[in-house]
Specification:
The chain has helices spanning about 1-20, 25-30, 50-60, 65-75, 100-110, 140-160, 175-190, 195-200, 210-225, 230-240, 245-270, 280-285, 295-305, 350-365, 380-395, 430-435, 440-445, 460-465, 470-490, 500-505, 510-530, 535-555, 565-590; strands at about 50, 80-85, 90-95, 125-130, 160-170, 275-280, 320, 325-330, 340, 370-375, 400-405, 410-415, 415, 455-460. By secondary structure, the protein is an alpha/beta fold. It folds into four domains: about 1-95, Arginyl tRNA synthetase N-terminal domain (Gyrase A, domain 2, 2-Layer Sandwich), CATH 3.30.1360; about 175-270, no CATH class; about 280-395, Rossmann fold (3-Layer(aba) Sandwich); about 465-590, Isoleucyl-tRNA Synthetase, Domain 1, CATH 1.10.730.10. The strands form four sheets. It has a five-stranded parallel β-sheet with strand order 6-5-4-10-11, with helices on both faces. It has a three-stranded antiparallel β-sheet with strand order 1-3-2. The structure holds one RNA strand.
Length: about 600
RNA sequence: GCGCCUGUAGCUCAAUCGGAUAGAGCAACAGCCUUCUAAGCUGUAGGUCACUGGUUCGAUUCCAGUCAGGCGCACCA
């Protein structure tokens, strides 16, 4: 809040200066990116600093230091600022008055106000994440996408956006067929010794899903007679000749059980979706006209391609038929080649379904669509962006699509990578990791790095309850604050219902000032997370805040100061509880608990 | 071959969409518990920001090229 306040004041001063110079221009015109405010890393450069005089030097044709001195004259008149210094090539180093800092801290203590200010123009956002195929339990890679997507959603919501979250269930296509066959194979295997020949009939290319969950589902089907009809069971036992009559049932049951497991893992991980969207719904024919949503979508694009003058040019891909297939001209947007929607054999591609899915998204009228994908899908981004252009053009919408790619997770134990092969079934599931290290550490550690960097997830570190482990470091700071307030109560210290700046006036130490400045920055950190679509600035910030508080706590006897009496005790308690509040709030955005004691 | 991500201290990573002397945490070394939680704190040491050019008042940041690692390049999903 201090930064936006200062930005405004400097902007005013610049306008004032321009007016005096007889210029018709405004600060906004000369500084399209706004007045830059920096947080000096080192002491001695003021509380906040701005290089704005350097930025203005070019357009105004004046020396940066001359501009800085002019701005200094105006800024130093403000009672909120105790000192302005022109330094280096033309920096403005600003030091705030203590009264003003106390006022800011008082705002942070006011539980009626959110410590995060809302964005000026809230958007309607749909975020799709996880969307793991229902062919097996969530693994550690999915977990990272889940933690990221969920925290971004929480952050955007806190910033005042209207956020809906969605999970796309890829339950149509070959991999579901393979799952059904794998389950069927396991089910047969439980009842008889299958010949190699029979196995090959069930799984012609030999590969299958082999995790223990497949056997579990097969066992359940075997032990619960009501899952299959007598007819289905009879045909299934007879072999693959009538597979079309029973494989669908195996597929349904397997998908249902796996999705149940996925939902259970997600809830345990602190994640609930507003909606699950099933790919099957896109393929199902509408009883009214016999057409599926995909048919309708392709029909619309096809009609648009014929009738619209812009289709096929100006970066708006159109639809065309060639070599017996149906294509979208994605090469218009720099794709290596055009992409197939309906194959020569008449079957639809995954891409076609995904376009229809995004058409359904657009129909809901959001401003921004966020898709969170694994990094291995990056080749798909251009294609999807191309389809969005076409959809926007034909729908007359301006929906924006942002894709966040989540890089790989390397799971380490004893410093060595843990193998994760889905085929052999020995991969580590999210659930295993949660059993071993818990939800809090898992979520926090997933979010300590930019999603664009691959992440080493050290199981031993995650488990360790020591200072190496940032999540304990941060949570411990919160527990310390809670304990201080409890101790104060035990000692009969009465904490006021509502704090006022007068309560805070004893806070004059350098470390106290620094803590207030750091607390004040929280607002900006969260808003940056939102605009950059990154979560790790928040985990970094919380670690820094916790560290600064631990140091403060160590060096200052909060409940029994050397001197200063009750007013100082109260003031320090106020500062501590502000720290507690911000840590609690920040952890909640990460989906991590803030314990009262540890 | 083409595309995307990454290259910063011994290790894992930051660096506020071009700014001041590039910062943390581990690990190493030297210290601090009669106290509101030592799950903590203090100090020392550690760097050719992969390399080479370019853009400008200024580059770890932007551009081009080179090298290295990861991932992806289907009428699969």
């Amino acid at each position: 809040m201090l930064d936006s306040w200062l930005e405004q004041k400097i902007s005013d001063s610049v306008n004032d200066l321009l007016k005096e110079k007889g210029s018709a221009q405004s600060s906004r015109e000369l500084l399209p990116k706004g007045v830059r405010i920096e947080f000096p890393k080192k002491n001695g450069f003021g509380d906040l600093a701005s290089p704005v005089a350097m930025h203005l030097a070019g357009p105004l044709k004046m020396a940066p230091r001359t501009i800085a001195v002019e701005l200094e004259k105006r800024l130093s008149l403000l009672k909120e600022i105790s000192r302005v210094e022109v330094a280096g090539p033309g920096y403005l180093n600003i030091t705030f008055s203590l009264d003003f800092l106390h006022e800011c801290l008082n705002n942070l203590l006011d539980t009626a106000r959110s410590p995060v200010s809302p964005v000026s123009s809230p958007k309607k956002i749909l975020i799709e994440y996880v969307s793991a195929n229902p062919t097996g339990p969530l693994h550690v890679g999915h977990g990272r996408g889940a933690a990221y997507g969920n925290s971004i959603a929480r952050i955007l919501k806190t910033l005042g956006h209207e956020v809906t979250s969605e999970y796309y269930i890829n339950n149509a296509g070959n991999q579901m067929d393979l799952l059904a066959r794998s389950t069927y194979l396991a089910w047969r295997g439980l009842q008889e010794n299958l010949s190699e020949e029979e196995r090959l009939k069930i799984l012609p290319d030999g590969s299958s899903y082999q995790g223990s969950y497949v056997t579990d589902i097969a066992k359940e089907i075997l032990e619960n007679p009501s899952l299959l009809s007598d007819e289905e069971r009879r045909l299934a036992l007879a072999g693959m000749e009538h597979s079309s009559r029973f494989l669908g049932r195996f597929s349904e049951i397997a998908e249902d059980r796996i999705m149940q497991g996925i939902r259970r893992d997600l809830i345990r991980f602190g994640i609930e979706f507003d909606r699950y969207f099933s790919e099957k719904n896109l393929h199902a024919p509408d009883p009214a006209d016999g057409k599926s949503l995909i048919d309708k979508c392709l029909g619309e694009i096809s009609e648009f391609s014929r009738s619209s003058k812009t289709a096929g040019e100006e970066g708006i891909p159109d639809l065309f038929e060639e070599e017996g297939a149906l294509w979208l001209r994605t090469s218009l947007l720099g794709d290596d080649k055009d992409r197939v929607l309906r194959k020569g054999d008449g079957n639809l591609t995954y891409y076609a379904a995904d376009i229809a899915y995004h058409r359904e998204k657009i129909a809901q009228g959001h401003d921004l669509y966020i898709d969170v994908w694994g990094a291995d899908h990056h080749g798909y981004i251009l294609r999807m962006q191309a389809a969005m252009k076409t959809l926007n053009a034909l729908k007359g919408t301006r929906a924006e699509l942002k894709v966040a790619l989540i890089q790989l997770v390397n799971l380490l134990r004893d410093g060595k990578p843990v193998g994760m092969s889905k085929r052999s079934g020995d991969f580590v599931t999210l659930s295993d990791v949660l059993d071993e290290v818990g939800v809090d550490a898992t979520r926090f550690l997933y979010l300590t790095r930019s999603h664009e960097s691959s992440l080493d997830f050290d199981l031993d570190l995650a488990k360790s309850k020591s200072m190496d482990n940032p999540v304990y470091y941060v949570q411990y700071a919160h527990a310390r604050v809670a304990n201080l307030l409890k101790q104060a109560e035990i000692r009969g210290i009465k904490v006021p219902e509502k704090w006022t700046p007068a309560h805070l006036s004893p806070l004059v130490g350098d470390d106290e000032k620094a803590l207030i400045l750091l607390l004040d920055r929280f607002d900006l950190v969260v808003s940056e997370c939102g605009s950059m679509m990154e979560v790790h600035p928040l985990t970094d910030y919380l670690t820094e805040l916790a560290g600064q508080f631990h140091r403060y706590y160590f060096h200052n006897r909060i409940l029994s100061p050397e001197s200063g009496g009750e007013p100082l005790i109260l003031a320090r308690l106020a500062l501590s509880s502000a720290v507690g509040r911000i840590i609690r709030f920040g952890l909640s955005l990460l989906g991590v608990s803030a314990p009262e004691s540890m």
